[in-house]
Structures are given as structure tokens and as C-alpha cells.
Amino acid sequence: MSEAVIVGLITAGSAIVCQVILALSGRAAARKENAENQRLITYRLDQLEQKVTAHNNVIERTYKLERDSEIIKEKLSSASHRIADLEKRPGHI
What we know:
Elements: H1 3-88
């Protein structure tokens, strides 16, 4: 074989080895980046779940307060009617 053919084969082999190394390192970097992205997504979902839970707790407390407010209004109305009835009775001062 001529010297030029041997040099060409060595150059081609070196180029192929370099491309394989670059491809493997690129995949490793992509896997690392995907893992980091997955951790970030998981963290953000956890934070969102905590916010939703806090919001739901506020909604439940608001519902309870509204229900209690209606009960108090009903009791106040009933007490007002009873007072009015007592005031209408004869012998009231």
C-alpha cells in the first residue's frame, strides 16, 4: 500500500473515533440536562401542589364562614322577631 493510502486510512479512522467520542459525550450531557430538567419540573409541581392545597384550605374556611354567617343572621332575625313580639304584648313598659 502506498503511503498516501495509509495516511488517509489513519485520518479517516481518527475522524470516526472523534465523532463517536463527541456523540457519546453529547448524549451524556443531554441525559444530565434531562435529569436536571426533570428535577426542576418535580420541584415546581410540588410547589404548585402546596399552593393549591393552601388555596383549597382558604376556600373551605370561607365556605364555613359564610355558612356560620347565615346561621348568625337567622338567629339574629329570630331574636328580632321575638323581641318585637314581646314589645307588642300588653303590659309592656
